[in-house]
Design goal:
Distance between the termini: 33 Å
Number of strands: 0
Order of helices and strands: HH
Strand content: under 5%
Number of helices: 2
Largest sheet: none
C-alpha cells in the first residue's frame, strides 16, 4: 500500500479538516526529526559530511517551520 502525501500547492487552503490536521502532524514530525538529528550531531558536526548535512537540515527545518506557520494561519 502506497500513501501519497503532498503539502499541496495552496498551503492553508482550509480544505478538509482531517487533511489539514494530517499535514500539520506530518510537518511537526519532520520538524522534530530534524531538531533531534541536529542535536545528536552537535552544532555543526565533526566532519565535512556532518557540516553539509547540518546545513541541509537547518534549511529544511526553516522551510518546514514556514509551512507549518502558513497552515496554522
Amino acid at each position: 500500500m502506497h500513501t501519497y502525501f503532498a503539502l499541496g500547492t495552496r498551503l492553508g487552503s482550509r480544505g478538509h479538516p482531517v487533511a489539514d490536521y494530517r499535514a500539520v502532524d506530518f510537518l511537526r514530525q519532520e520538524i522534530a526529526f530534524f531538531e533531534a538529528r541536529l542535536k545528536e550531531m552537535g552544532e555543526a558536526g565533526d566532519c565535512a559530511y556532518e557540516h553539509a548535512l547540518s546545513r541541509a537540515y537547518e534549511s529544511l527545518l526553516h522551510e518546514r517551520r514556514g509551512q507549518l506557520t502558513q497552515l496554522q494561519a
